[in-house]
Description:
By secondary structure, the chain is an all-alpha fold. Helices cover about 90% and strands about 0% of the residues. The protein contains seven helices and no strands. The radius of gyration is 28 Å and the shape is elongated.
Amino acid sequence: PIFISMAYMSLTLFIISSSGILLIALCSAWLNRYVLVSGTKLSPIFSEFTTRYLRSIRNRILLRIYGTTNTEIGECIRSSQDFRSKMTTIVKWNSLIPIISNLIIPIWLLFITWIGIAYLKVETAILLPFFYLFLRMGTYLSGLSSGISAMLADLPAAKELAETTWLAVDLQKYQKFQNARNKPSTQKYEPCE
């Protein structure tokens, strides 16, 4: 509905504003590439960090006996710094996407005003509702691009979770598991003496 009403008010301004929205979409897609790459690297780093940390907690006495406590602590610190670095990169790119769209929209609005008044001689009574609709559309697309960016950051971890969780991947195995669980056991146990 917003696109139709904007095109009805002024087709030329609608084409110019659509090119601005396309510019925002291209910038968001370019930044989302970095978010996806960082998100792909985050999952193995987090897995390594948690595995190393839990292993060092579990084997604390053994590490003291062998005298490798300081080395293990250094490795845990390195793993946590790698995780923090990747997470900081994801947060940086995720926060940059709405900022860029919120910077481009007012600049593009000034450009539309200049074109509309100087060259197309559009009446101000048409420009004001057009600006409102353009700002509403830009705000909506800014939120949409933020959501897409957050989804891309979490997509690799979600894929890994789906691959490792057999319940989510194979429904037939789940149904067989449920059927076997509901059947009475045929195995006989020997009494303990």
